[in-house]
Specification:
By secondary structure, this protein is mostly helical.
């Protein structure tokens, strides 16, 4: 791990993000130097898909091997003044443990589905038939600057490179154990996403969504960095474990590692610590679209290409929650009495606002956007009881996140297929879908009842039971009541959308959804995983419990 003052890198620990980074470079080189030919965009998609599968295999091998791998470690001799006269243990910036491997697996599995959706989106933008696309316009051929339609094409090389960059950050983030790496990983997740949103050229709605996402990202980063600088100033360390040790060692008179502060100065330091916690938590709240930082979600999801909306709702959200959980439970567990009540209030407001706004929507993607905000509230809720039951709180939040990811990806995959129809963005386009296109309609219906928490969507039901149990056992009865009320409220728009799927089609309506190969595989993969979670929830619960 370390040798004297010289670091040695455990490449096995960083293998998964390293694979993604190398494949990202390969995709960019292939796009730049390979001759233009039909099928080029599809080839880049398959290379990206292969990289994700390889990284997922690495994560699976690491999880099967058990244990924890650490690298980029700082020995005690370089850790500054020891707390309470004791030698501080070595602190590591990258830790591949049970938590980080689970989040990485969720992110990579979701990435596979997003790449499959991207292959469909890019093929459709290039104007081929319903099957696999080919022709000179596929990858920089003579039609590159041909007509007005070609000007709006999505550049495949840049798209897959940015997607891989986002996924690299999403895999790095849950393994980050110092503030600097946490912030850098979070930005690596965020920055490519607004570029992906804007890659749909000459689309005013996409440009507007990208600008809004950019502004949100800049503000959230500034707020996070301000909070990080205060935490470093108060504790004298960037490593999460040493921040916790510093705050615990000095109690409510914390701040100076010597413990020789005057009473008034100590009181100021306590206030600075509280402000730092609020600022850093607020920065992460922007990323997960928690109230009051949720305002951007509807417009950004609606304006972005559907694969990017799916990326935001699952990968970006999983990364944001991973960072927030690490910050609160690794750096600030001793201050749970300070941040837990705030988390409870934000969770209640987030699920309420998300459900109320979702009820008013008439566009499918906007409904899923606000539904995603409501789901963030459910994921946050167990963290409010961390001070009472730390292990159960984190386990419930992570379990809900895993269940939610699979269910939501089914919905976005079907929405992508329907969006290709005229007026396909509106909920009315789904009327009679289960009768016109049974595979797509039944898959979406299963996803919606899962999100609602109703049988036969047992994955969603188990997810809500796990969260309810954690909150009730933690003594927050009022939050459990708010969750129950919001669960009932959520039934309204989920059931209304499901009912449309089985309603008689409008007179003369006979359009069917063309199930393209890549999107069909995406639906099948997400559906299979959700069915497994419904039949055997212990697959998730045993890993998070």
């Amino acid at each position: 791990m370390t040798g004297g003052g010289i670091q040695s890198i455990d490449y096995a620990a960083v293998a998964a993000p390293l694979v993604l980074a190398l494949v990202a470079g390969l995709v960019l080189l292939l796009d730049a130097f390979l001759p233009a030919r039909p099928g080029g965009a599809r080839m880049l998609g398959l290379v990206t898909l292969g990289g994700l599968v390889a990284a997922l295999a690495v994560v699976a091998v690491q999880a099967a091997g058990g244990g924890t791998r650490r690298t980029f470690c700082v020995p005690a001799s370089l850790g500054g003044a020891p707390a309470a006269g004791r030698a501080a243990p070595a602190s590591c910036s990258f830790v591949a443990d049970r938590f980080s491997l689970l989040i990485a697996a969720v992110v990579l599995a979701a990435g596979v589905v997003v790449v499959l959706l991207s292959m469909t989106e890019i093929a459709a933008e290039r104007g081929g038939g319903p099957g696999e696309r080919s022709g000179p316009a596929e990858h920089g051929g003579p039609a590159e600057h041909g007509g007005p339609g070609e000007r709006g094409r999505i550049p495949a090389g840049e798209w897959y490179f940015l997607l891989l960059a986002t996924l690299t950050g999403a895999v790095l983030l849950p393994a980050s154990r110092d503030l600097i790496m946490l912030v850098v990983s979070l930005e690596l997740v965020s920055l490519p996403v607004f570029a992906l949103t804007a890659l749909k050229r000459h689309d005013g709605r996409a440009a507007e969504a990208a600008l809004k996402l950019f502004l949100v990202s800049v503000v959230s980063t500034a707020v996070t960095l301000f909070g990080v600088s205060l935490l470093y100033g108060v504790t004298g360390s960037v490593h999460l474990d040493r921040i916790d040790a510093a705050l615990r060692a000095t109690g409510d008179t914390a701040g100076d590692m010597t413990g020789n502060l005057a009473g008034s100065t100590a009181g100021d330091m306590v206030q600075v610590t509280a402000v730092a916690i609020v600022l850093v938590a607020a920065g992460f709240a922007f990323k997960i679209a928690a109230v009051p930082f949720h305002f951007w979600a509807g417009d950004v999801y609606r304006g972005a290409p559907v694969p990017v909306a799916a990326l935001l709702s699952v990968v970006s959200k999983a990364s944001g929650f991973a960072g927030l959980i690490l910050l609160l439970t690794s750096a600030l567990p001793g201050r749970a009495a300070l941040w837990a009540p705030g988390v409870a209030v934000v969770a209640a407001l987030t699920m309420t606002a998300g459900n109320v706004l979702a009820m008013r929507q008439r566009a499918a993607v906007r409904l899923l956007a606000w539904s995603s905000v409501a789901q963030s509230g459910y994921i946050l809720a167990p963290l409010a009881v961390y001070a009472v039951a730390p292990r159960a709180a984190v386990g419930a939040s992570v379990a809900y996140l895993v269940f939610y990811a699979a269910m939501n990806l089914i919905a976005f995959a079907v929405v992508l297929l329907v969006a290709r129809l005229p007026e396909g963005q509106d909920l009315e386009a789904y009327r009679g879908l289960a009768l016109r296109s049974p595979a797509a309609g039944l898959s979406l219906a299963f996803a919606l009842v899962c999100l609602a928490g109703l049988p036969p969507g047992l994955a969603g039901l188990f997810a809500k039971i796990v969260v309810f149990r954690a909150v009730v056992d933690g003594g927050l009865g009022w939050l459990a009541l708010v969750m129950a009320a919001n669960t009932v409220a959520g039934l309204y728009y989920y059931i209304a959308w499901t009912a449309r799927l089985f309603a008689p089609p409008a007179a003369g309506e006979s359009r069917t959804v063309a199930t393209r190969t890549a999107a069909g595989v995406a639906v099948a993969v997400a559906l299979a995983v959700t069915v497994v979670f419904s039949v055997a929830p212990q697959v998730v619960l045993s890993f998070t419990g």
